[in-house]
Amino acid sequence: MLLVTLAVTAGCAGEAKMVKLETSMGDIVIELDEENAPVTVKNFLSYIEEGFYDGTIFHRVIANFMIQGGGFTADMKQKKTREPIVNEASNGLKNERGTIAMARMPDPDSATSQFFINHRNNSRLDYVEGSNAGYTVFGKVAEGIDVVDTIAAVKTARKGRYSDVPVKAVMIKSAKVVPGK
Asked: Are the beta carbons of 70 and 53 closer than 8 angstroms?
């Protein structure tokens, strides 16, 4: 079983807010982009502060696409979330390798707690005025892209109605706030 710890810290004025994912495969440090995605970053930090991600898993892993987590327990039970947030995908940030973005349903304004880290450039997920609502990017991997690669390579299978579920659970043990750079 892979264990993952999300750690997030609030920075002082002028410092970027950082999220440290401590995993059994190594650390992933994510720099949040509060300037370009203020609603999304606030939402993400709120879930972390309330301990929502504790005990969730990376439930959807597709090599050469993305790793997704933040909404399911190890037994594939979906956690109850708060109300959805507005889609900020028109913020100019692109779904490039190593960026973190919000998962959502077909309704552009349906993102709640689930997020994904892009394993490659995914321009088809970017906002295009008048034709694609896009997926909100709200940060990027500053350190540990090799860990993302390792997680993306785990063996997956179908579990109930869900596909691309890691055979050995990739757990998020806890989420904490950490100092920015």
From this structure: yes
Residues forming a β-bridge with 6: 21, 175
Which candidate, 174, 179, 171, places its Cα nearest to that of 51? 174
Read off the DSSP letter of residue 162: E
d(CA 24, CA 159): 23
**94 closest CA partner among 128, 126, 129:** 126
Its pTM stands at: 0.91
Q: Which amino acid is at 9?
A: T
| CA separation, residue 84 to residues 6, 31, 100, 103 (Å) | 22, 23, 18, 11
Distances (CA, A) of 18 to 6, 33, 163: 11, 9, 31
- Ordered structural domains, the chain, with CATH: 2-176 (2.40.100.10)
Containing 149, the helix (H) or strand (E) segment is helix 145-152
Instruction: Tell which residue, 57, 69, 54, 132, has the closest CA to residue 102.
Output: 69
pLDDT in tens, 132-146: 999 999 999 998 999
Q: Is 88 left (phi over 0), alpha (psi -120 to 50) or beta?
A: alpha
Q: How far is the C-alpha of 84 from the C-alpha of 136, rounded, in Å?
A: 13
Compute the radius of gyration of the chain from its Cα atoms: 15
Over range 110-118, report the average pLDDT: 97
Q: State yes or no: pLDDT of 8 exceeds 70.
A: no
